[in-house]
Design a protein that fits this description.
alpha/beta, Rossmann fold, 7-stranded parallel beta sheet, 15 helices, 41% helix
């Protein structure tokens, strides 16, 4: 991880839960193997036995627009105070969601500009995001715009080349100041070995047939991640008895009603949110995530590390690292439920294909441990420190710049027209 540095990571939360909190937690742990790491956050959980330090940011509430805005204001003031009064306390200040304005490095986990553009419509009968959630997206997009539009906007880390292209397209950000570092995955926690431990247990709990085929959809933000399209695709599989297992938080009533209108209500199971996703990967046969917009898709990597064949959108960040037909199947147009259904059907009918894709998926995921994310992130820090000392940064080549590491249907179809 290079020469030891004093690093401050700033994020609303740092926990084992999915998304950004999990990313920050995993990055902090990996960086702490060679550096002194302090996390500024509202919540901080699961760091027992590590050297990671914590300084609490006291924002208003625990979530929502007021929390996001208050966290931004308070964290900005705190970081500014540290930079003014304790100039040498940290070598690098690295911010994540709700970024304070006085950081040297920012990681963007979600390009709000592109996310909003993709979410203007919803399938019939599926409500759009609530006004509060849409206001939050606008708030975060505004913060994003202010940060990116500054003359000296700092150094940015993004999760995919698509995000980098969007930044360059929409803002005056020099390409050499944007670094592509994909997510990592804990391949010991997410492993094919979990099948023997958890498959029967989870299937018993959910009353799933031991030999039945289970298609897993895991995550929140169901409209963006394409749950409606997943349900529509399942309904087009004539005579197939596969079950769609939905794990995560969302509008269950609306999507259960959609499954009912598609005449497959009994084949869609809502298991609720979980902090033990590895158990559900172990209980499943295929992982499906037809996201309309997906900056990366950490759950895709988790499924791949678990040895599951994945069927995911080509436009997802993780999709950039998948070789179609080798270590996964890619969906060209996630709104096209017919394409989605055909590829899902091919997976369910071919056990040899599932085995081969799952095996290769695991091999791909093994190339992206969190230690790799930490090492590449530390290299970005070193470039920033060199620039601060008056040195010259070389041309950056991101991992993605190098190339990839190699009946019921009729009732439902009109909903997606």
């Amino acid at each position: 991880l290079g020469s030891p540095m004093k690093i401050a990571l700033v994020s609303t939360h740092a926990t084992s839960e999915g998304g950004v909190p999990h990313y920050v937690s995993s990055l902090a742990r990996a960086l702490a193997k060679g550096h002194e790491v302090t996390v500024y956050s509202s919540r901080f959980e699961g760091f027992d036995g590590t050297s990671v330090r914590h300084r609490k940011i006291r924002a208003i509430g625990s979530g929502g627009n007021i929390f996001d805005l208050s966290f931004l204001i308070v964290s900005t003031l705190v970081i500014w105070a540290h930079r003014v009064k304790r100039r040498n306390e940290f070598d690098i200040i690295h911010s994540h969601v709700g970024s304070p304005f006085f950081s040297e490095v920012f990681t963007s986990h979600f390009y709000e500009h592109d996310g909003i553009a993709q979410m203007k419509t919803a399938p019939k009968g599926i409500p759009r995001d609530s006004l509060i959630l849409r206001l939050r997206s606008r708030l975060m997009a505004g913060i994003e715009s202010v940060l990116l539009a500054r003359r000296n906007s700092g150094t940015w880390i993004v999760l995919s080349t698509a995000m980098k292209r969007g930044f360059i397209r929409d803002y005056p950000v020099p390409p050499e100041s944007i670094f592509v570092i994909p997510n990592g995955v804990d391949s010991s926690r997410y492993s094919p070995d979990n099948v023997a431990r958890y498959r029967d247990e989870v299937r018993d709990q959910l009353s799933l047939a031991p030999g039945g085929q289970v298609v897993l959809f895991l995550g929140g933000d169901w409209l963006r991640k394409g749950l409606a399209q997943a349900i529509g695709a399942l309904s087009l599989l004539a005579g197939d008895e596969a079950t769609l297992l939905v794990v995560g938080f969302g509008n269950v009533a609306a999507y259960r009603n959609l499954a009912k209108r598609c005449r497959i209500e009994e084949r869609v199971i809502f298991a609720g949110p979980t902090r033990e996703g590895w158990k559900y990967y172990a209980a499943s046969d295929v992982y499906l995530l037809p996201s309309l917009y997906e900056p990366f898709g950490l759950s895709i990597f988790e499924a791949m590390a678990s040895g599951l064949p994945v069927l995911v959108s080509r436009n997802s960040g993780a999709g950039e690292l998948i070789n179609d037909g080798v270590d996964g199947l890619l969906i060209q147009e996630p709104r096209d439920v017919r394409e989605l259904s055909e590829k899902l059907g091919a997976l369910l009918k071919d056990a040899d294909l599932r085995t081969r894709l799952g095996r290769e998926a695991r091999c791909t995921a093994l190339r992206y441990p969190w230690d790799r994310v930490a090492r590449e992130t530390a290299e970005v820090y070193e470039r920033v420190m060199l620039r601060k000392r008056g040195g010259v940064e070389g041309q950056h080549l991101s991992p993605n710049d190098e190339g990839k590491s190699k009946g019921a249907g009729l009732a439902c179809r009109a909903i997606f027209l």
